[in-house]
Design goal:
Blueprint: H1 6-14, E1 23-24, H2 30-40, E2 52-57, H3 59-75, H4 80-91, E3 96-101, H5 111-131, E4 135-139, H6 147-154, E5 161-171, H7 183-186
Antiparallel strand pairs: 1-5, 2-3, 3-5, 4-5
Helix pairs in contact: 2-5, 3-4, 3-6
């Protein structure tokens, strides 16, 4: 058995994503972000396929995506509130890492498992950011699921998708607490 890491367990039992709208600068510099990405890349990856990649979005890239949102929102006939929320997700951010699910051909590892790996990378990047003292949150506004938006705005190929937009920055307010899952109600114990 491995030696328990009490500090890591305490962190995991109390971790809390920070609402993206409460994050501001400063944000991690390139060197600090590379450490966070390295930690995130240590996620489970059956077959060692690396079925994900990162796109680091800052400054002009975030402004460009914010400008693209209303065009797509009107085409999709979304209401003003949905469009504004998606615009603000890009416009008010200073650093966003798009985790891209990028499945690889494999006879052994189904695409769904590769998708799970990309999701694990999202959580690992949020947790690495929090552990390093940054505020972080994983978002997926409607634009992240719109093919035209992700192909034109992010240059994704047809088989790729956005697993999550990870917002990283300095928190301005303590995060609100929220109800936690009832583990007893969600757990079934099978001993035979």
């Amino acid at each position: 058995m491995l030696k328990p890491n009490d500090a890591a367990m305490a962190f995991l039992l109390t971790r809390r994503s920070r609402p993206a709208k409460t994050l501001t600068g400063p944000v991690p510099d390139r060197e600090a972000l590379e450490v966070l990405l390295t930690a995130a890349a240590r996620s489970p990856d059956h077959g060692k396929l690396e079925p994900w990649r990162f796109i680091v979005l800052q400054d002009a890239a975030l402004a460009r995506l914010a400008e693209l949102v209303p065009q797509r929102g009107l085409t999709l006939e979304l209401d003003d509130e949905q469009i504004t929320k998606a615009v603000n997700a890009f416009l008010h951010a200073q650093l966003v890492v798009a985790v891209i699910a990028s499945p690889k051909p494999s006879l052994k590892v189904p695409k769904v498992e590769q998708s799970y790996s990309a999701g694990a990378v999202c959580l690992s990047l949020v947790n690495a950011s929090l552990a390093a003292g940054w505020g972080a949150n994983c978002l997926s506004v409607w634009a992240s699921h719109d093919r035209a938006f992700v192909e034109y705005g992010l240059g994704l190929s047809e088989q790729e998708s956005v697993a999550g937009f990870i917002h990283i920055g300095t928190e301005t307010t303590p995060p609100p607490e929220r109800p936690r899952p009832d583990i007893e109600a969600l757990t079934e114990w099978c001993d035979r």
